[in-house]
Amino acid sequence: QLQASGGGLVQAGGSLRLSCTASGRTFSDYAMGWFRQAPGKERELVAALSRGGSVKFYADSVKGRFTISRDNAKNTVYLQMNSLKPEDTAVYCCAAAHTVTGAVVRTAVGYNSWGQGTLVTVSS
Q1: How far is the C-alpha of 109 from the C-alpha of 52, rounded, in Å?
Q2: What is the Cα–Cα distance from 39 to 43, expressed in whole angstroms?
Q3: Are the beta carbons of 108 and 95 closer than 8 angstroms?
Q4: Is 75:21 a contact under the CB 8 Å cutoff?
Q5: 63, 48 in Cβ contact below 8 A?
Q6: What angle is formed at CA 105 by the lines to CA 23 and CA 84, rounded to 5 degrees?
Q7: Which of 98, 101, 105, 107 is most deeply packed, by most CB within 10 A?
Q8: Distance CA 72, CA 52 (A)
């Protein structure tokens, strides 16, 4: 089970940190990802992280502004979002992919478990 939190309303230029805590699994066996879906748009992968945290992927739209990290001791993955823009407004969702490799998982079909979404609204 994945539990996401940290969404909210923020002004453009502001910051938020999303958290996603896993239970009932060996967290370090899973690559993690954050997806988002804005109204009328398809779901997109925002950031992904390997099991050990050494390999990261970011969508071009968030590079340099968002940072994904994990604390395996706390079974938690984070998404630090800085310099937020109105176009970042979306429902953000975390996902877990069981894997035996050190790679990131870049497609939604590769993820086994999904958390509930948390809404991020960025006002202009």
Answers
A1: 21
A2: 10
A3: yes
A4: yes
A5: no
A6: 80
A7: 105
A8: 8
| Confidence at residue 24, expressed as pLDDT on a 0 to 100 scale | 79
Tell me the torsion sign for CA atoms 32, 63, 88, 66: positive
**Rounded Cα distance, 111 and 17, in Å:** 22
- Ramachandran assignment for 62, one of left (phi > 0), alpha (psi -120 to 50 degrees), beta (any other): alpha
- The pair of structure tokens assigned to 14 is 């502001």
Query: From CA 85, how far away is CA 28, in angstroms rounded?
Result: 32
Q: Taking a C-beta distance cutoff of 8 angstroms, is the pair 18, 36 a contact? A: no
pLDDT band at 97 (very low <50, low <70, confident <90, very high): very high
Q: What percentage of the chain carries pLDDT values higher than 70?
A: 100
Question: Around Cβ 79, how many Cβ atoms within 10 Å?
Answer: 27
Tokens found for residue 10: 């923020």
Which tens digit of pLDDT belongs to each residue from 18-66?
A: 999 999 779 999 999 999 999 999 999 999 999 999 999 999 999 999 9
Count Cβ atoms within 10 A of the Cβ of residue 64 and give its class: 0-12 exposed, 13-18 middle, 19 or more buried: exposed
